[in-house]
Amino acid sequence: MKKTEIERRLTRGQQSAAVELAQLIERAKTAQPRNIRQTGPASFKIDHRRSGLAGQTGWLDMRSLLPELLDAEGVLTKTPAATPAGETRTLEASILANSRACQAGAHLLVVEPAMEPIEGAGAFRMQRAGFRVISPATVDALTLDANGEGTATAQALPIAEAEIDPDAWTQRACRFEISRAEMRDNPQVVDELLIAIGAGLSHAADQELLTAISAAAPDAFSLAAAAAAGCRFSDLRALTDGTGATVADDGQLRLAGVPAELSQDLPGSLIGDFGTAALAIKPEITVLAERTDAQGGLALTVWAGMQALLPTASKFWSVS
């Protein structure tokens, strides 16, 4: 007997996002409304204090594998940008590959919650987590006295940190409604939705980080300002909505001479050392699958928690 695609993936031992989502949808199809309570072997009662939603909640791990989207002959039909044919990427890798900010050098941090004991208290607390940027220490020339001795001036630690605030996660969500006919006529609908979700999370990551950078009101860009901030030219990248950008003679998009990429996720143009910024994301994506009608239609709602980490906003500039 020929194995189905889902059986093939389970046999291969992969943690497949498509399998997880397909199983969640199947459970949602038979879920009972939450306001119906069984009071006996064959008797039920409606609790009007509770929601009549009939659905199931599940989670997608950032390490879950996205579908390959290959047909029966192995022909590639569609994958995220930068995904070679035949290669399966995780949800995390899909965000990295499609996020303009990450491609410019920003870091993506999947934050695993961890607890630590409070000494002597018999309780636990959340471990601190964040993103640090270490700058070169200032090593000055000393002025020596008559005895050949000098005193070094104390300086602030050359370490900047943006700590993750456990109460400041930005919750981002999207919702899809799928009819029974769409699920019947398109056997790849789950795979295609996962690809769309992965690409959408990439845009959400860019929006989160670029909004934080723009909110810091960066100064106007100049090479002198970048040099004063200790940036190397090779570390500079630009993201732009087209404002001020030009296509150079070599066919590359540039902004004030800096290599650039187009982005729909910010108004205007930014230049900076994106390696000094990070986007934290929770390790699990919450998915709610709920029945919307008696004909088998479903709605999928997806939530993700994100937080921009910007220890050194002074290494970003605006271009008008």
Write up what this structure looks like.
This protein has 320 residues and is an alpha+beta fold. The protein is 22% helix and 29% strand. Strands 3, 4, 9, 15, 16 and 17 form a 6-stranded mixed β-sheet that branches. Strands 11-12-13-10-14-18 form a 6-stranded mixed β-sheet, with no helix packed on it. The chain has a two-stranded antiparallel sheet with strand order 1-2. Strand 16 (284-291) and strand 17 (298-309) form a beta hairpin. The protein is flat.
Structural key phrases:
disordered N terminus; 320 residues; flat; 22% helix; 6-stranded mixed sheet; 18 strands; 7 helices; alpha+beta
Summarize the structure.
With 320 residues, the protein is α+β, with helices and mostly antiparallel strands. The protein has seven helices and 18 strands.
Indicate the topology.
Layout (H helix, E strand, L loop, with lengths): L4 H8 L4 H13 L6 E5 L2 E4 L8 E7 L29 H8 L1 H4 L3 E4 L4 E4 L4 E4 L3 E5 L24 E5 L6 E9 L1 H6 L3 H27 L7 H6 L8 E4 L4 E3 L5 E3 L2 E5 L6 E4 L5 E4 L2 E8 L6 E12 L6 E4 L1
Parallel strand pairs: 4-15, 10-13
Antiparallel strand pairs: 1-2, 3-16, 5-6, 7-8, 9-17, 10-14, 11-12, 12-13, 14-18, 15-17, 16-17
